């Protein structure tokens, strides 16, 4: 009695191919709908005129692009190049400079403070890691605006401010210090707000570090500092790059913290965009400023991404 032939399995190659196509197309569809399309709209508004840009929006293509907003930015750049015009008001370029400088300082401060935090959490007992991570993420349980207002109470420049109260009671100062409405207050608020975005990627990278490499370095006579510089720090490079991107990119366009803790005295690009969209009703100028800001962020993003890829290839 001959055995029955086994039924051949149905071809599933086409089904898998279609499934992969739809899964891969979802991120591109998301990026196109929520990133590319809004950015294209902003670009269209930036080359329009104030009369055509305020809703209901009229495409500038029907009337010809204007481009006066980019001309104003180019004029400011020309004034900056020609140093003889020192009295010129470089409102937008100064806002760009302040934004990039404060974002860079925020990233460096978050890295200096967040790396020890992440290293300590990664080297803690497994039972303590979840508790420490919860403490890092605990500020997210409170409204972002309330946390900024709390910093206003801490840094108040009068005797009401908690820090000034403490310093006065300890007789360390004779009169309240001007802690609020300056660049230092803005920097402190931004470091506090963005520190978890640096700690979490660093922790995710450091917790996977092979402890046997550190033990081998100690056995070979390396000091703890040398072990950190030659083993731990290079192997945590991807976490540093990821955390720096998560901090630097949103910090450049920050609006709430400079507005509340800076009191209008620290002009950043987010405030300039808000002024042009709001009180000034100059939507083309605000859109042009936003487009240029995105272009300015392309270079640091590419550099950080390239360093992250190089670090990943060496692991």
Topology:
Elements: H1 13-46, H2 50-53, H3 68-81, H4 91-122, H5 126-137, H6 144-155, H7 162-169, H8 183-206, H9 211-219, H10 224-235, H11 237-252, H12 256-261, H13 269-277, H14 283-314
Helix pairs in contact: 1-14, 3-14, 4-8, 4-11, 4-13, 8-11, 9-10, 11-14, 13-14
Structure, described:
With 315 residues, the chain is an all-alpha fold. The protein has one domain: MetI-like (MetI-like fold), CATH 1.10.3720. 71% of the residues lie in helices and 0% in strands. The chain is built from 14 helices and no strands. Helix 3 packs across helix 14, helix 4 crosses helix 13 and helix 9 packs antiparallel against helix 10. The model has no long low-confidence stretch (mean pLDDT 84).
**Rounded radius of gyration (Å):** 26 Å
CATH class: Mainly Alpha
| CATH architecture assignment name | Orthogonal Bundle
- Structural class estimated from helices and strands: mainly alpha
Shape: globular
Strand content: under 5%
Core attributes:
single chain; mainly alpha
Brief sketch in words of this structure:
With 315 residues, the protein is mainly α.
